[in-house]
Amino acid sequence: MRENNVTLKIAGEAGYGIATMGAMFAKLMQRSGLYVFGESDYPSLIRGGHNTMTIRASDEKIYSLDGQIDILIALNKKSVHEHIEEMTKQGIIIYDSGKVQEAQAKISREDVKMLSVPLTKIADEAGGQDIYFSQVAMGALMALLKMKPEAFGQIIEQTFEKKGKSVIMQNKAALLAGHRYVMKNDGVECDIAIRPKKNLHTLLLGANDAACLGSVKAGVRLIAEYPMSPSSSVLHWMAANAKEHDIVVKHTEDEIAAMNYILGAGFAGVRAMTATSGGGFSLMAEALGNGGMAEIPCVVINVQRCGPSTALPTYTEQADLQFVLHASQGEFPRIVCMPGDVEEAFYETFNVWNMCELAQTPAIILLDKYVGESIETVKYFDLKGMEVKRGLLQTDEQMESVKDFLRYKVTQNGISPRCLPGQKNGIHVCSSYEHDETGFTSEDPNNRIIQIDKRARKLSAINPNLYQPAFYGNSKSTILAVSWGSTKGPVLEALKKLKRENIEVRFMHIKYASPFATDTIRQALQSASKAIIFEGNSEGQMRNLIREKTGIMIENLYCRYDGRPFVPDEIVAKIKEVMEKE
Amino acid sequence: MASINDLAEPEHTITWCPGCGNYAILAALKKAIIDCGLEPHQTVVSSGVGCCSKLPHFIKTYGYEGLHGREVAAASGTKLANHELEVIALGGDGDGLGIGVGHFVHACRRNYDMTYIVHDNHIYGLTTGQTSPTSEQGFKSKSTPDGALEIPINPISLAIDSGATFVARGFSGELVHLSKLIAAGIKHKGFAFIDVMQPCVVWNKINTFEYYKQKCYKLDEDKKYDSTNKMMALAKAQEWETKIPIGVIYQQDRPTYEDGLPMLGKGPLSKLPIDNVDMSGLLKEYE
Prior knowledge:
CATH architecture of chain B: 3-Layer(aba) Sandwich
Number of helices of chain A: 19
CATH architecture of the largest domain in chain A: 3-Layer(aba) Sandwich
Distance between the termini of chain A: 43 Å
Structural class of chain A: alpha/beta
Shape of chain B: globular
Number of strands of chain A: 23
Mean pLDDT of chain A: 96
Number of helices of chain B: 9
Number of domains of chain A: 4
Largest interface: A-B, 67 and 56 residues
Helix content of chain A: 25-40%
Strand content of chain B: 15-25%
Order of helices and strands of chain B: HEEHEHHEEEHEHEHEHEH
CATH class of chain B: Alpha Beta
Distance between the termini of chain B: 56 Å
CATH class of the largest domain in chain A: Alpha Beta
Helix content of chain B: 25-40%
Largest sheet of chain B: 8 strands, mixed
Largest sheet of chain A: 8 strands, mixed
Low-confidence stretches of chain B: none
Radius of gyration of chain A: 26 Å
Low-confidence stretches of chain A: none
Strand order of the largest sheet of chain A: 7-6-5-2-4-3-16-9
CATH topology of the largest domain in chain A: Pyruvate-ferredoxin Oxidoreductase, domain 3
Oligomer: heterodimer
């Protein structure tokens, strides 16, 4: 009997409530003291199509899915066959015998078990409506995993709290009926059991939510956003929490407006942000440069999806790195942070707010569909020492005695005192034109050089400890794996597998593309005998950046650009391949 | 109380062409700011890019000189961030009614408590004379040597239909009248739009000072005109060919966008403390 280690996939059409069921099961696993990772896969439509949610739970920390499924809840005929190759040996497929005839459920693998449950019929008979068939399936699942259905009942109560008692009752009735059915009609043995443990003090969430939380902790006051998958959950999350936390959330007419709103708001002294995906970010490019020129701190979250143009709107990619590094005409400093998981999305987003206000320049947080929408359990956030720092923002008292205030004063580290409209003695124009120290337009050639150099120096004021890459694995190994952003999880998972085979690898996860930890990254590469970089794009954009900054070309590049996240096994295989190379 | 002299920026040489209508708009704006009793440091003049958009450098208030056509969007952000500031956006017919017309329409709907002045000279000036969204059909310029094929935008009816609660037309040749219009716009609680007829002495040989001098008449002299009557206002907005009404064309009381935001109740967002935000409530749902 395998204990406390299971991967469940729920598959069916959009509109079946698959994401809700998946989230509820993930919650149950979290409450059972397990670590959880969950990932959804869906096409760009509202009803129909083929949607899945996959939840992996384990009593050891997990960083990604593993490419395999132990139990599949197949809510339609297509789902029975679509995932057959992902099933583990002795895996179980639960299907609705009311919808899928036995002949249609004939599968190509003999080592996979079929469990037919008349889901919709049981849901009907349980006094509810057939829409509760998914709860019948969850009841069946509880029976297979030898769990008490009551535990799931609590999750139902919390999930549907706002929908009222009768909805909760009907969901529960369906759950219990599904459980009873499998207990009575045993025929399929499941060799996996979940034995609830002490609840770890964890949080279960995705990186989009974590970036929102990091921003609230940093004191964000205004969000201007235009909806775009897979970033829209930021808009929804902020709108839901706006009143409680004194945040103005504006769904603007377009992304151009959104970016200009946050510039106007940043100028007036609030921490203001927007979120979008690549298409919207393209529209923001001009205003991003305005922020750079006028020295306005602000944060743009780009939750990447496949590009160019509309491409695969609901699938993941890491192909905007070079774009966000260079977006907008001319040259100006910017902060580009690529959180690799939920914890980094929270802590680094908070850090980025301090950094961009210190350097008085725009910051971009690059997430992607995979890390943004996948959920994982993380340690309860440690909020100690998270201190808001506002750089050279002047207080009213400081401004009281000021004479001849120079908003763009040339200083050693390029950072000038910043005052806000409403404050006395600080009147200036915050300008998109090149300007002199006062803010007045200047086309003087010497001033031009002075101001470009001044702005360029600002990133040097940021403490380098804040943007160093993270290292994992064996620091003494001369085999170096490199990645950035959301590829972190699958690489960490691959490291676990390699370790089981006594293969030690060092892993460098790059969190910031600007400022860039050039020395550290160069040293790590120089001390490796073999290096391989994993990226979710076709060109090797980080590999190119590393070469540009360090002069070192990482010999081995493994790219994935089919819209799907990396799978640990392919990383294991590639690392082994590199090790065997002469 | 500030005086006109407090608004002067003597060290900033004005770079407009001699005879440009922008001089009169600047003078009218300064007078309106003083007449309304505004403090310079609590006033933000927010512009885009174009001839008129250089104006923030020529008046001693806080200024925001952003991107072509984006003045209303940026000014909206400023207003939401600190609604105690007096925010006056200004743009041209090229940036405000061309590339930025979307922001204009939506700002009207929202009824932010701000003032928006369009310096409407029916031509692109700073890019050396091309047909603009308000140029008349048949207008010949470098971009339309055979004459513009499309009809012009009517900024007045567009603003009324889009929900602006104060819609006026001024003329740079009527400085005192214009100044009063701007002052009324500033005092108005809601989105005040003022379309200012302004001759471009270099590029526009049609809509000249004389052209307006002959056609403009003051609406407030018409005692029968009711600017709170929307249908009457929309009809008045159509007048152009033979005579052009200047004055307040439409005015309405409607709650502002800011009125609907409970999060502004504790004072301007920019003044709320942001240290030590309590996260326990937010984290609960993830436990």
